Amino acid sequence: MAVLLTGGLGYIGSHTAVELLNSGEEIIILDNLSNCKREVADKIREITNKDFKLYIADLLNRADIEKIFEDNSISEVIHFAGLKAVGESCEKPLEYYHNNITGTLILLETMRKYGCNKIVFSSSATVYGNPKTVPITEDFPLSTTNPYGTTKLFIEQILQDTVKAYPEWSCINLRYFNPVGAHSSGKIGEDPNGIPNNLMPYINLVAAGKLDHLNVFGNDYDTKDGTGVRDYIHVVDLSLAHLKALEKLRNMQGIEVYNIGTGEGYSVLDIVHAFEKANDLTIKYEIAPRRVGDIATCYADATKAKVELGWKATKSLEDMCKDAWNYTKNNIK
Ligand code: NAD
Ligand code: UD1
Hints:
The chain is an alpha/beta fold. Helix content is 41%, strand content 18%. It has a 7-stranded parallel beta sheet with strand order 3-2-1-4-5-6-11, with helices on both faces. Strands 12-9-14 form a 3-stranded mixed beta sheet. α1 (11-22) crosses α8 and α7 crosses α11. The chain is globular. It starts with a strand and ends with a helix. 46% of the residues are buried. The model has no long low-confidence stretch (mean pLDDT 97).
C-alpha cells in the first residue's frame, strides 16, 4: 500500500516525501511540473537513498488520474497540488478555481471510485482572513480576501461535506502558517519563479545580490516595531506534521483541522536581523508603503496539533535562516 502525494515535487511536497521515505513509507508522487522541476525527484532519491514511482500527470486529466489508482494500491492521499500565488489568483481567478477546485473534485471522485477514503489536505492560515485577535485557534471564524484563499475555504467545505456523506471517509485539513527554510542537505528548497512575493525568498535573493534591497511593506502597524508579524515555520517541521497527521488519519473517522505553526510571531525586521546574524551577511532594506491586503499580525495557537497529533515545531528561527540561505547559495544560477 502506498501514500499518494499530489504536487509531491513542489516545495512542501518534496520535503514531506523525504520524511515519509525516511520513515519507511511507500510513496507515489504525482505532479504536472507547473511549478517545480523534474530534477527534484532525483534529489529526493539522493537524500533518502530510496526509490518511488513518479507520475508526471495533471489532476485535471481524469483518465491519467484513474490510471494511477487502477495500477497502484493507494491507501491515503496527501493533497499538496494547487496554484498558490495570491496576487496571480486575483488576475487569473478562473484558472485558480479550475485548477484547485476541479482538480480536487477529480481527485476525490477517483478516490471514491477506487475505494480510497483517507486524505490530508494542504490548507492555509489564509482561511482566517483578518483575525480579530491572536493567537489563532482552529475555531476562529473563516473568511478570505482573494481567490487563492477562497479555493482553500471551498475545498475545506467540499471535504467536510464528503466526510459527512460517506462515513467511511476520514480527512485532516492542515492549516499551514508561513513555511520557510529548506532541507539541511541544501538539495531541495523553495525555488519561486521570477521575483518572489514572499519575504524569505526575497531576502535570499537580496543576499545573493540578485535583488538590490528588500522593501519592508509598512512600519506603522500596531506591532512591536511597526512591521508585520507572522508565524514562520521550518518546512521540515511542517513536513513532520504530515507524518503525524497520517498516523492519526489511519486511526480515525470524520474530519479534523489543525493549525501548523510554531505559535510564535516574528516581525519583518526580526527576520531581517535573524537572517543577517545566522549567515553573517547584511541585508539592505528600505521602508515602503503597506502592501494591499496585508494584515498586521498572524500567528497560530498550535496546541491542538500538540495534544492530538503529538506534533510540535522544534526548529529555531536561526535554523530557518541558515537552511534557507544554504539552499539558495548552493542553487542560485
Ligand atoms: P508548490 O507550488 O511548490 O507545490 C505545488 C505543486 O503542485 C507544484 O509542484 C505544482 O507543479 C503541482 N501542481 C499544481 N497544480 C497541479 C495539477 N493540476 N496537477 C498536478 N500537479 C499540480 O507549493 P507549496 O509551497 O509546496 O505548497 C503546497 C500546498 O500547500 C499548496 O496547496 C499550497 O496552496 C499550500 N500552502 C502553501 C503555503 C506556502 O507558503 N508555501 C502556505 C499555505 C498553504
Ligand atoms: C502570504 C499570502 C498568504 C500565504 C502566505 C504563505 C498574501 C497577501 N498572503 O502571506 O495567503 O498563505 O504568504 O505563503 O500574499 N514582506 C515585506 N516585503 C516583501 C515581502 C513580504 O515586507 O518583499 C512582509 C509582508 O508585508 C508580511 C511579511 O513580510 O508582513 C510576510 O509576507 P509573506 O512572506 O508574503 O507572507 P504573508 O503575507 O503572511
